[in-house]
Write a structure and sequence with these properties.
Blueprint: H1 3-10, H2 17-26, E1 36-37, E2 42-43, E3 51-52, E4 56-58, E5 63-64, E6 69-72, E7 83-89, E8 94-95, E9 100-103, E10 105-110, E11 115-116, E12 121-122, E13 130-133, E14 138-142
Parallel strand pairs: 1-4, 2-5, 3-6, 4-7, 5-8, 6-9, 7-10, 8-11, 9-12, 11-13
Antiparallel strand pairs: 13-14
Helix pairs in contact: 1-2
């Protein structure tokens, strides 16, 4: 487990949580304590520039590269008035460098095993095992069934 990943998992500790948040900020990461994170998170390149909204849920074995942003598509609207409820990133998802996942209304779900390509801007939910790329992101492929390993087999 990398130092950054270890810090992310410790950001909720009662005594040192605030210090951990500041250490993550030195790496250019913003991961609020409210973000729910499953086991096996992998963060590459120290996650420089990664920002997660508090209403984000990351499943098991999610991979984040540097510059990933997961948040609201309407930041100018007060949080109480925003239609965004939550962004759910299911198990085994890979968000490549610079990927942006933004939600304006309801719950946006990234399906299990999905890959969001570098610098893609995803504004809609995806199915399992899909590959998304572009601005705005569109489905460009589908992962082979063998590429997504069930969590029970690990």
């Amino acid at each position: 487990m990398s130092l950054v990943t270890a810090l992310i998992y410790r950001r909720r500790l009662p005594v040192v949580g605030r210090l951990v948040q500041e250490l993550l900020a030195l790496y250019g990461m913003e991961v609020p304590a409210a973000v729910e994170i499953g086991p096996g998170l992998t963060v590459y390149h120290r996650g420089f520039g990664t920002v997660l909204h508090p209403y984000v849920t990351l499943g098991a074995h999610v991979t984040l590269y540097n510059g990933v942003t997961i948040g609201r598509a309407d930041p100018w609207v007060p949080q109480e008035e925003s239609g965004m409820e939550r962004i759910v990133v299911e198990d085994d998802v890979c968000l490549c460098a610079g990927a942006k996942v933004v939600c304006k209304e309801g719950v946006l779900t990234i399906g299990r095993g999905t890959i969001v390509g570098a610098n893609a801007v995803l504004t809609q939910s995806t199915g399992p095992g899909e590959i998304w790329a572009g601005v705005p992101a569109r489905r460009v492929g589908h992962r082979r069934a063998t590429a997504v390993v069930p969590a029970a087999r690990r």
